Amino acid sequence: MLRNYIKITLAVLWRNKFFTFISLFGISLTLATLMVATSLADHTISPQYPELNRDRILYITGIKLYNTQKGEFNAGGLSPYFCNHYLASLKTQEAYGFGRNGDPINTYLNNKKIALVSGFTDEGFWKVMSFHFLEGKPYSKADISNAEKVVVISEKARDDYYGTAATALGKDIVLGDDHYRVIGVVQSNPPLNNYTSADVYFPYTLAKEDWNNQDPRGSYRAFILAPSKAAVSTVQDEFYSMAAKIPLPDKDYDYQFIGADTYLTSFVRAVFNKGNVPSKTGGTRNSTGMTRFFLIIGGLIFLFMLLPTISLININITRILERSSEIGVRKSFGASSRTLVYQFIIENIILTMLGGVIGIVLTLIVLHFLNASGWIEDVQLDFNIRVLTYSLLFCLLFGLLSGVYPAWRMSRMQIIEALKA
Amino acid sequence: MLQLQNIEKVYRTDTVETLALRNINLQVDKGEFLSIMGPSGCGKSTLLNLMGLLDEPSKGKVVVDGKSTERLSDKQMAHFRNQSFGFIFQSYHLINDLKVLDNTELPLLYRSSASGQRKKLATEALEKVGLANRANHLPSQLSGGQKQRVAIARAIVGKPSIILADEPTGNLDSTMGHEIMDILLHLNQNEGTTIVMVTHDETMARRTHRLVRLFDGSQVQ
User: Fold this and answer.
1) Which residues pair with A172 in a beta bridge?
2) Is A337's CB within 8 Å of B74's CB?
3) Is B11 on the interface with A (CB under 8 A)?
4) Which residues have a Cβ under 8 Å from the Cβ of A251 and sit 6 or more positions away?
5) Measured between beta carbons, which residues in chain A are less than 8 angstroms from residue B49?
6) How confident is the model at residue A283 (pLDDT cuts 50, 70, 90)?
7) Which pLDDT does position A172 carry in this prediction?
8) B81 closest CB neighbour out of A7, A11, A332
9) A104, A401, A413, B60: which could form a disulfide with B7 (CB 3.0–4.6 Å)?
């Protein structure tokens, strides 16, 4: 039966070349766009250099203070005091670190400006993250305590400042108005790594701020490394019970929340759960906004697929009506309406799968050019198994969405009318 | 084998009501070759369609092999058509995208028979109509007479109880028409196939066992 369906599908596709082209073009372009987007999303979410342990890192992106009476809140980062005082006390963790990044810092070489991005971290940051050191090593606890003027620079910064592949270890670098000594060179950290990317990493004690202030609020993010993926929730539990005991830093607020989230959740909480004032009695920990996030993403994908789906439905109706005589014949010889619905859905799935294959090829071409163009700095987008699975699911969904309605309409056709058409 | 009891068929549109068949009572016996004649628009094809469960009567009952076909579900109706009837249409109604062999095995697709068995039966059916050598041709590569022979092979492949043929020679010249008629007669005489045939052609009708004449939706003979 299936072989017969495949045979007729291919024959019909070959016969109606124009329809086939239009259908395949629409499907493959839509799928390719979705697949490139999925690849980008997958790259953003899955473990990537230097956050190779992303699946066992908890991201603490800040502290939120609420005035539940007035419905106001205040959000900000963490202070080094908070990290060193509270995070250090967690027993179930393997390591913790903290840092901030993103501020521009300029340097000049032969009167030519080199724009770099700065980062300030503690020594634990290097333990939690998996940086690949091309030269030297990270700064130590002693370097931090003594506020040594040392820096770890990226390969890109080294190439820009000292020349491609030149040695930088132990050399002097002028950043802003000060001189620093390079003690390490790491493989560049892509800008897509929102929490950790920088060109120059300084010990946090070199930042122009009062890092001894005991207020938990500051400008840092903290990262806790769990011993294993399975232990993440244990660490999370310990963190939350510890966080519940941290005193409120400001009398204008009556409640505070500090979330320790996995990578994706940390983003989602920041974007989708910004203004929610939680009740004091609980539920806060779960109100990450993930449901909303998935609904919005699902809605966007649905809308994106809706237009080509509608056009495919129209094309399918025309295609099926063209074949009304065949429908009449099949019904005359014993096909039930349901069997015919299956046949046309299978035909449509075959068509979308074919479009999917073309879409995959298109995606590979687009990814190749994206990677080659360097449009997204230091990022190599992959077409991995996960993306392929998503893509096939998209194809299936697309095939079903655009096949069910025409097939249902066709199945209601009376045999006599179908044979006369 | 096949009984039509008090059959009436009315076609209704928004403005007009047309009585296509009235008070038809007809019995087709096993092994019989029956022809239905009458002027254009007298309801011959409508009657054949009702016999083959391709259409539903407005009143009355169609009984096939002793079973009433009233109030059958779509699936049961499909099963009945598959098991009991083989259709031959005036305009052949072959699926142009499928090869002759695939067209022939069509009724078997809706039964639980394996691919090999389907191919074997379809080839045998094509042999009976003398077209086994065209199994891998497409319908577009065949003449009218050959197409109708494929349609006959398709109608007999599932060994149905009755073959219903709607003007099977209507689109063919006299020689071809007689060739097709010979095949149908052969099936009837040698294999005991029951056949009901609608025709305009008196010569063809005379070659069958019994003739039923319709006029304005009523049976007159």
Assistant:
1) A181
2) yes
3) no
4) none
5) 415-416
6) very low
7) 94
8) A332
9) B60
B81–A334 C-beta distance less than 8 A:
yes
Please indicate whether, in this complex, the C-beta atoms of A334 and B93 are within 8 angstroms of each other: no
The residues spanned by each domain of chain A are 2-47+292-420, 62-260
pLDDT digit string, tens, across residues B137-165? 999 999 988 998 899 999 999 989 899 99
A1: nearest CB among B78, B109, B154: B109
A330, A338, A415 member nearest B75 (Cβ): A338
CB B15 within 8 A of CB B186: no
Residues of B in Cβ contact (< 8 Å) with A337 = 74, 78
Nearest-CA distance A322 → chain B (Å): 12
CA atoms within 13 A on the CB side of A145: 4
| Least Cα separation, residue A312 to chain B (angstroms) | 21
- Check CB contact under 8 Å for A333 and B115: no
Is the pLDDT reported for residue B6 higher than 80? Answer: yes
User: Who's near A83: CB < 8 A, 6+ residues apart?
Assistant: A96, A98, A122, A220, A222
With beta carbons less than 8 A apart as the criterion, state whether A133 and A197 touch: no
In angstroms, the CA A408 to CA B74 distance is 14
A60-88 burial string, b = 16+ CB within 10 Å, else e? bbbbbbbeeeeeebeebbbbbbbbbebbe
- Give the one of B98, B110, B115 whose C-beta lies nearest to A339's C-beta: B110
In this complex, do B98 and A7 lie within 8 Å of one another by their Cβ atoms? yes
Chain B nearest-CA distance from A8, in A, is: 6
Interface pTM, i.e. ipTM: 0.93
Domain residue extents for chain B: 31-57+82-219
Q: CB B78 to CB A339 under 8 A?
A: yes
B102 or B219, which is more confident? B102
Q: A197 and A125 in contact (C-beta within 8 Å)?
A: no
* Closest CA in chain A for residue B156: A333
**What CATH number does the domain located at B31-57+82-219 have?**
3.40.50.300
Which residues contact residue A256 at a Cβ distance below 8 angstroms, ignoring those fewer than 6 apart? A63, A64, A65, A66, A246, A248, A249
